Amino acid sequence: MSREPVKPFLINKDEEGHYRLTVRHTRFNSQGYPIVTATLQDEQFKTANAARAHAREHFRAEPGQYSTK
């Protein structure tokens, strides 16, 4: 597993064509390895920009904290 920090907000397109936001929290175990917990949000968005706006409003997301992979 990579020791690179994971971007906390993942935006993916689902099978139905909606964009979904996943919030990821990273913590490190006693040996320094990252443990990532991902929580898929219930909301569905028509565009990736709408998902980013939701993350900014509800989770105080900042530019550069988004990932699509």
Q: Unreliable segments (pLDDT under 50, ≥5 consecutive)? A: none
The share of residues in helices is 10-25%
- How far is it from the N-terminal to the C-terminal residue, by CA? 15 Å
Q: How would you sum up the major sheet?
A: 4 strands, mixed
Mean pLDDT metric: 92
Q: Compute the number of structural domains.
A: 1
Task: Spell the H/E element sequence.
Answer: EEEHE
Our Rg estimate from Cα atoms comes to 13 Å
Strand runs, count: 4
Which of globular, elongated, flat, extended, rod-shaped describes the shape?
elongated
The number of helical runs is 1
Sequence of strands across the biggest β-sheet:
3-2-1-4
How large a portion of the residues is in β-strands, by DSSP E? 35-45%
Short description:
By secondary structure, the protein is α+β, with helices and mostly antiparallel strands. It has one domain.
Could you please describe the fold and organization of this structure?
The chain has 69 residues and is an alpha+beta fold. It has one domain. The protein is built from one helix and four strands. It has one helix at residues 48-59; strands spanning 9-13, 19-28, 34-45, 66-67. A four-stranded mixed sheet has the order 3-2-1-4. Strand 2 and strand 3 form a beta hairpin. The longest helix has 12 residues, at 48-59. The two termini are 15 Å apart. 10% of the residues are buried. The mean pLDDT is 92.
